[in-house]
Design goal:
about 425 residues; mainly alpha; about 80% helix
Length: about 425
């Protein structure tokens, strides 16, 4: 965090064009919001078995509720992004905090699968307003171009801290209070994001030299850009991987007869690895092209999922594979969002990243739902490990032909400004 503040000019750090707050304050607040929002999302896997057993439901029902949360998140992300880009990020954080608290309370009070599905809708809206995707625009607009990828990487690190703390936090309250009462504690925790909204209220980007680009023009430009669609295809795979793993790993561990602590430890080391991996991804943009970094990340994921098929699986192996996967977890975020900013600039960055993120959430929906369907049909997760391997190889291939350069409009503006 301090490196970001030291490396940008004093005028930019102290008074960015978009507001009076220093960059480090905006980044820290955004990372904290992302940590809480993403951390609360990540603990849902701990509730799969107790919720389904208490309500007498199969895993498909809970998987579908989480799938609904993820698809709603994806559908809402472009809209919360557009609000953030035009009016500032603060109000979408308030929306996200309130919806997250409501979704957690509805899960606490649920008595049927329908209640779980409604809870999923609110949880989806919640993370759309208070997840990493909602914060990238605020940080991306506040940071100068040369610091943008590193600043966004701090958001991913904040998410990693959130995951690291949220899992043992939720597990502790589940042990002390029971799973239902622990959800009330999590709902109260979500409300802690409300005061942070003030610090991420970064409004729209400064006007460019030419006529400001409108929303329809931004969409038309993005939809006509082939590399934008390749980025969408790759991020679909990211969503499929992380939500399947995060939600179903605790049940997978329990099926093997291992203690619940193995799953908690494994998902916690994902959070620790994510801190390291996201930082390295942010720094890697200075050395190699972002598209190359993304291809390497997805190749690594394919290898990790293959490990679940070919290695002898016990507690230490699961924790080791989770640690490696953690290095590759949200390391995709600074590189993917950085490519959006490289292509199109920061003006509509949150909204355009929200569209890419929708693809991510379609993958999330399919990953978490298919895992439940295939498990109920086969009583095994082997098919999901194979699918995850294949998708990892696919994502590595589709990022390779991306052309990592600004669109013609930005190149023209850069030439005029010189």
């Amino acid at each position: 965090m301090n490196d970001i503040g030291r490396n940008i000019p004093a005028t930019a750090a102290a008074r960015p064009a978009q507001g009076a707050l220093p960059l480090w304050v905006i980044v820290l607040a955004g990372a904290t919001v992302a940590g809480i929002g993403m951390g609360l999302r990540q603990v849902m896997g701990l509730y799969l078995k107790p919720v389904t057993e208490n309500l007498g439901l199969g895993r498909e029902a809970f998987g579908l509720a989480m799938a609904i949360a993820n698809i709603v998140w994806g559908l809402a992300a472009p809209f919360t992004g557009a609000v953030s880009d035009k009016y500032g990020t603060g109000r979408v954080v308030v929306f996200g905090a309130l919806c997250t608290a409501a979704g957690l309370y509805l899960m606490y009070a649920a008595t049927s699968d329908i209640h779980l599905f409604i809870s999923g809708v609110f949880l989806g809206f919640g993370v759309a307003g208070a997840g990493v995707n909602a914060m990238v625009g605020a940080v991306g607009r506040a940071a100068p171009p040369e610091q943008r990828t590193a600043a966004i990487a701090v958001l991913g690190m904040g998410s990693g801290v959130g995951v690291f703390l949220a899992l043992p936090y939720a597990h502790l309250f589940m042990e002390l209070l029971g799973w239902q009462a622990s959800l009330v504690v999590l709902a109260a925790t979500a409300m802690a994001m409300l005061p942070l909204a003030y610090f991420v209220r970064v409004p729209k980007a400064a006007a460019p030299l030419s006529r400001p680009q409108g929303l329809r023009e931004a969409l038309a430009e993005a939809f006509a850009h082939p590399s934008f669609w390749l980025l969408n295809a790759g991020f679909f795979v990211c969503g499929f991987h992380v939500v399947f793993y995060g939600v179903h790993l605790p049940a997978y561990v329990a099926d093997l007869g291992l203690s619940e602590g193995v799953a908690v430890t494994a998902l916690t080391v994902v959070g620790i690895g994510n801190l390291i991996g996201t930082y390295l991804a942010g720094q890697s943009a200075r050395i190699i092209e972002k598209r190359v970094g993304l291809s390497l990340i997805y190749l690594g994921r394919a290898a990790v999922f293959a490990g679940f098929l070919f290695l002898p699986i016990d507690g230490p192996t699961i924790i080791l594979l989770s640690a490696v996967l953690g290095l590759l977890w949200l390391s995709t975020v600074p590189l993917t969002s950085g490519l959006v900013a490289t292509f199109f600039g920061p003006t509509w960055m949150t909204m355009l990243y929200g569209i890419v993120f929708f693809s991510h959430q379609v993958g999330s929906f399919l990953g978490v739902w298919m895992a439940g369907v295939l498990y109920d049909a086969t009583k095994s997760y082997d098919a999901m490990w194979w699918i995850s391997v294949g998708l990892g190889l696919f994502a590595a291939l589709v990022h390779w032909p991306i052309k990592e350069r600004p669109v013609a409009r930005l190149q023209f503006e850069a030439a005029v400004s010189r």
